[in-house]
Amino acid sequence: MSDKANVASLDNNAIYHEVSPNIILLLRFFNFLTFIMAVISFILCVVQGDGNETYYLLACNTVISCLVGIVVNWWYRSGDLGPEKFWYIFIVGAVIMFQCITTDIFVFHVLNEDSKNINPPSSVNRTTIFPAISVRPASTVKTFIDFADMH
Questions:
Q1: How confident is the model at residue 81 (pLDDT cuts 50, 70, 90)?
Q2: What is the mean pLDDT of the chain?
Q3: What is the CA angle 33-42-70, rounded to 5?
Q4: What residue intervals traverse the membrane (predicted)?
Q5: Which residues contact residue 75 at a Cβ distance below 8 angstroms, ignoring those fewer than 6 apart?
Q6: What is the rounded (10 degree) CA torsion for 10, 11, 15, 18?
Q7: Where in the chain are the domains?
């Protein structure tokens, strides 16, 4: 009878979760780090935007990407994404971090005077253009046939 009593009782040391708490803690830290990088990138774009208006577009792009990350986290917390898909949040966060890093590099990349000229240096054209009259179709076809016979 004592075996039946042990089966019916609950074990207080049992773990009732689908994802390890360490992974959840790592996920929260990763989300916090992504948020900090996005805020820094947004602030840098807005501050530098008075010199170049395209930085405002980068700030909007950062905000939109963060909204995608927030929606994915919301889906995970509400159960729509599934507990085994926690890695998807890491991928979205890594993409947002990469975007923030490249945005910061772009904002602080200073062009020197030589690279501001987008026109390539002019080169002298050394090709000779022959008029269409000088090309004889019969000799051209004969040249192609002779070339094909040689190879």
A1: confident
A2: 80
A3: 55
A4: 23-47, 54-76, 88-111
A5: 81
A6: -30
A7: 18-111
